[in-house]
Specification:
The protein is an alpha+beta fold and 263 residues long. Strands 4, 7, 9, 10, 11, 13, 15 and 16 form an eight-stranded antiparallel β-sheet that branches. A three-stranded antiparallel β-sheet has the order 1-2-3. It has a three-stranded antiparallel β-sheet with strand order 8-14-12, with no helix packed on it. The longest helix has 19 residues. It is globular. It starts with a strand and ends in a 16-residue tail after the last strand.
Length: 263
């Protein structure tokens, strides 16, 4: 085989009855090089078990990388492998409340016994035994997933009662207002002292209709629902406290209408 600058020349010997002939065949360098590479790739891919399908796709990818300078650069400097982050859960609508550090168990027999003792001595008008707002319960008292998303849990010291901005909030019992104004995660918050160690709190209010020192009677308008403070949407954060520790409001509330939980 002879070669010039642009091609290789092959001398082919052909024998027939009439004699022996020598033929010249010019083959371009590019064809020879590409053919050599192709044979090499077939051997490599077969050795590593990639198979024919992988071999067939490779020339297409190689051509794309050659024609596209961006793909060429990526092929030369592949990005490091990364692990996709775990999907986060969407935040809960119309929920919220302060982040409670004191994780009080509102279901203990000791607390129930204290409530029974208070009922026996308190004026029934001062027992917070009616709902401050009629709405679907979005979050109960106790541990729950963080309403702002993620996989963390937090202790919820009250109940989240669904409502619209501007809905009425009424006092569930007689008492005296001891707090009224902005209070951290509660946003606009109102607190009423009902005596015998019982207090109630109302959070995320859009407007407060009572002031500190006001005497409140059961069923009286005290505020309007909103979404102030640590909240994902309009609702009422209702909290019952015994000796300044949160307990489950269901200890003193009647069951809500099942119709409220039907959207």
């Amino acid at each position: 085989m002879q070669k010039d600058r642009e091609s290789y020349t092959l001398l082919l010997k052909h024998t027939s009855k009439s004699g022996i002939y020598i033929k010249r065949l010019a083959v371009s360098k590019g064809a020879v090089h590409f053919g050599s590479i192709g044979v090499f790739l077939v051997l490599v891919l077969t050795t590593f078990g990639i198979g024919v399908a992988g071999f067939v796709q490779f020339p297409v990818l190689a051509k794309s990388a050659t024609d596209n300078p961006v793909l060429t650069q990526l092929a030369a400097n592949p990005a490091p492998e990364t692990t996709a982050p775990a999907p986060t859960e969407a935040f809960a609508f119309n929920s919220g409340g302060p982040e409670e550090n004191e994780q009080v168990d509102g279901e203990t027999s000791e607390i129930e016994n204290q409530i029974i003792a208070i009922r026996a001595n308190i004026d029934p008008a001062f027992m917070p035994s009616i709902w401050p707002h009629a709405g679907k319960i979005n979050n109960e008292f106790g541990f729950r997933r963080n309403p702002f998303g993620g996989r963390t849990y937090e202790f919820h010291p009250g109940m989240d009662i669904d409502g619209e901005r501007g809905d009425l909030v009424v006092a569930p019992a007689n008492g005296v207002v001891i707090k009224a104004g902005w209070t951290g995660g509660y946003g606009n918050m109102l607190e009423i002292d009902h005596g015998n160690g019982l207090t109630t709190r109302y959070g995320h209010l859009s407007k407060i209709e009572s002031a500190v020192g006001d005497q409140i009677t059961r069923g009286q308008l005290i505020a309007y629902i909103g979404s102030t403070g640590r909240s994902t949407g309009p609702h009422l954060h209702y909290e019952l406290r015994l000796n300044d520790k949160s307990i489950n409001p269901r200890h003193v509330l009647p069951p809500e209408s099942p119709d409220l939980n039907v959207k």
